[in-house]
UniProtKB/TrEMBL annotation:
Coiled-coil residues: none
Biological function: Voltage-dependent rectifying anion channel that facilitates the translocation between chloroplast and cytoplasm of phosphorylated carbohydrates such as triosephosphate, 3-phosphoglycerate and inorganic phosphate (Pi) depending of ATP to triosephosphate ratio in the plastidial intermembrane space; in high triosephosphate/ATP conditions (e.g. photosynthesis), export of triosphosphate from chloroplast (outward rectifying channels), but in high ATP/triosephosphate conditions (e.g. dark phase), import of phosphosolutes (inward rectifying channels).
Organism (species): Arabis alpina
GO term, biological process aspect, one: regulation of monoatomic anion transport
InterPro entries reported for this sequence: OEP21
GO CC term, one of those recorded: etioplast membrane
Compartments, record wording: Plastid, Chloroplast outer membrane; Plastid, Etioplast membrane
Gene Ontology terms, MF aspect: porin activity; voltage-gated monoatomic anion channel activity
Its membrane topology: Multi-pass membrane protein
The protein's name in its UniProt record: Uncharacterized protein
Family: Belongs to the plastid outer envelope porin OEP21 (TC 1.B.29) family.
């Protein structure tokens, strides 16, 4: 199980994030992750991740619960391009869709989210690292971290 402390620009508090990845087979994982904000759970997610290793791409499908939008279905995709051969610096393209919205409001669909980001990892110890991610949301035209 991985545990991390997270702070983002859209929150005023430091959050505890935890995740566990359970292998199903060589190309599939069952991924559980959640977050505590001031001692109360702020979200929990369970997803199946399928990897296309040849293309450095992954597809995720699952359920997500948070205190604002309650229970929802998510579909995510990610394509990773190496900037350095050691995989410490990558350029990532991510997309997310919430397919239930099309059924909730007839004729009105949320456009989803598309993000391009540059990720850098610094290895401090064998089992500890620091990750810095800076991205740009292509629809909202804002920086994301």
């Amino acid at each position: 199980m991985e545990t991390s402390l997270r702070y983002s620009t859209n929150s005023t508090s430091l959050k505890i994030h935890t995740k566990e990845k359970l292998p199903v087979n060589s190309k599939t994982l069952f991924h559980l992750h959640g977050e505590l904000d001031a001692g109360a759970p702020s979200y929990f997610c369970a997803m199946i991740i399928y990897f296309f290793h040849e293309a450095s791409t992954s597809l995720k499908v699952g359920l997500h619960y948070d205190k604002r939008e309650k229970l929802r279905c998510l579909v995510r995709g990610k394509n990773k391009f190496l900037v350095r051969t050691d995989e410490l610096v990558t350029f990532n393209i991510k997309g997310k869709s919430k397919p239930w919205r099309a059924f909730k409001r007839k004729g009105v669909q949320k456009r989803g989210e598309k993000l391009a980001e540059l990720a850098n990892i610094w290895k401090f110890h064998k089992e500890q690292d620091l990750r810095l991610r800076v991205g740009y949301d292509m629809f909202d035209k804002v920086l994301k971290s």
